[in-house]
Amino acid sequence: MARVSNTSASGTKAAKPARKKFAVPPVKVACLECRAARTRCDGKPDCSNCTTKGKVCIYTQSKRGGSRIRKRRQSSSDGDASSNNKEFNHCSLSILPEFNQASFAEPLGLVAPGGGLRQLDLSLEDTDFIFDAIFSTRDESLDSGYDTSDHTGSCSESDHPRSCIRVYSSDQDILAAYYTYIHPYLPVLPAPEPGQVYDNPEVGIRRAPDSIFNSVSAADFEPSTPLSLAISALLALIPHPEDTDPSGTESVHLRREQAQAFAQSAYESIEIESELVDSNTQPGEALSREIDPLDRNPFHPRNPLQNESIIALLMLSTYEYAQRGNIAKMRNRAGQALNAALNLGLHSKADEDGYYAEANRRVWWMTYITVCQGSILSNSPPPILLYDPRFTTLGPTFSADTEAWTDFLQAQHVIVSATQFVIDLDVTLKTNSNTSAIWQRMLELEGLIEPLIAKADTWTLESFPPVMLDSSELKVSQALRGIARIKLNSARIKLHRYCAFSDVPVFTKKHCDLKSATESRVQSEAPMAPNCSCSTTFHQLSNMDLSPNSSMSPPSTTNCGILPFSSTFSAKVCLKSSFNIARSFQSLPYPQPAPSSDPMHFFSAMKDIKVPRMMPVFACCAMQSSYAMIMLCYKTRAMGFVGAVDDGRESPASKLLSQLQDGLGLILDALRNYSLAYEALGGMRDQIEVATQSVNNMQVSPIPDH
């Protein structure tokens, strides 16, 4: 690998530090003088900096928990994943009256993440025919376009004998890696310049047992600003291309430690940059003082220095959710970013036109999106008004597709509104309040979402061969449209899920707004809320002639009572939307890491595998999709519509089950890819695997002949 000179992100030559930074862990408490000067403190009673400058060395107790302590590694076994998720609740689905004769078999052993994928057989031109033959009580007109392509992966061959941790030798290389891995999914910095998109990772080394990993070629370099540290925390989670066992316990633990060290340092740096020395020494004077302006080079030449802490908080927000699984901290970091952005007036720039205009627009709107996403993940109302008239800043511009941002923002508004609908529906059911408002709201949202999804079905989400990221940001536009399509269809599942499936839980743990089986058992002791008629509908269908040409009369109860749509219609909507989500996840672009010495050549060690996509704050959409497909699998199997028909051909039910399995496979592919970097998302992956295997192992009897 070519050695890269230690330069700043702005392209200027950085002076070599007088001493090596971060060779040992940071001290528990830095003195006030070092904190004010933003320099490294050695923690001695009279630190070397104060002694040299003739200053009085004063310490106050830290409020941030002290120095990082490396945790003792826990022994693990091959059964870790299954023990974390325990056993799929065998009885949760069978509470529907017509299904309680079906029993779940013991789940199979979990599939190893990253395993090779089979050729998928998805020819869904006849999906409507199949669904209608099984479930419909009347003519439906929903088209479920869904197909896949062959998609396999294998580990690269390498003789490297140890776990490898990814490090970088300069801020310039960190910025280039940001553009390679993060920017396509969260374009919070300006568009890249030519030659700014590459990946030059090194294998990090430790110079002390508890120190972080450093570059070999630039031993004195260490990221030191909030933004470079926050980006480094995310990059540290990506397996190094020379790591022969990136999913091994050793590699995972080392990446976790490195990322957490960077994340903690990033947050501390944000705090330090807003610190007033007088707050500790002369609090009475602090209120009349202003924070000194930052005196350092910007991480990015076209991004204002004061925006860097906001961007760092957005990075840390995603880190807390996807890596550490802490939604509360995710929302806290996003809230801090929002407050900082509002204080800088980034929300009210109107039609600002200047050198930093585009940078300010991107920082504001990515903050807005992250805050909204936090409310979706926590199933709570957003802390801001979606259409606040004070938000006048224009949207960012992506020259390859000028409408991509508008469509993406609209999809974000829709899924927030659908989440609010789920909240309101839950309150209505629990309080037995008037249902007319929720009825009308569902009609309004369906009227809004359906044409948007029809429009999204016409989008081109990928290119062949895949495009490289450049200043036109076509790759970014494709990713934004893919994410928008995922969110639109997830919003529609949220809207129809209760009417289609009565929100019967299928997962043992709570994810997003999907109840867990344990939570459901506790609530079952309370008075029952009104149920949809899906149970009645599917039960009546079990005695009907399901031949394609038969005429079927609708059952006496055709809707959910409190909601305007029939359970069959809603189930079919969920089927189509879940397939759309699966296909859209498959179409999202992958990072294309290429070394700066040869931008057209991928790493030989990684050319045969998919490197992890980053910034999966919309991963709950995968859970919505899988929930719908698992429920449809369950209903189809529990009704006994399996096996061959009289002439020996595959039955419509068997064909639908095959398509649902392939759709679930695509969702699992996406989550396996994300979980290569993000550990918390491995829990989602495992829950879907266990639930899917339990449904597949159901012991059911075919419907008897009449």
UniProtKB/TrEMBL annotation:
Residues 142-162 are annotated as: Disordered. SUPFAM superfamilies: Zn2/Cys6 DNA-binding domain (SSF57701). It holds the Pfam family Zn_clus. GO terms for molecular function: DNA-binding transcription factor activity, RNA polymerase II-specific; zinc ion binding. Residues 30-59 form the Zn(2)-C6 fungal-type domain. PANTHER family: ZN(II)2CYS6 TRANSCRIPTION FACTOR (EUROFUNG), ZN(II)2CYS6 TRANSCRIPTION FACTOR (EUROFUNG)-RELATED. This is Zn(2)-C6 fungal-type domain-containing protein. It comes from Amorphotheca resinae ATCC 22711.
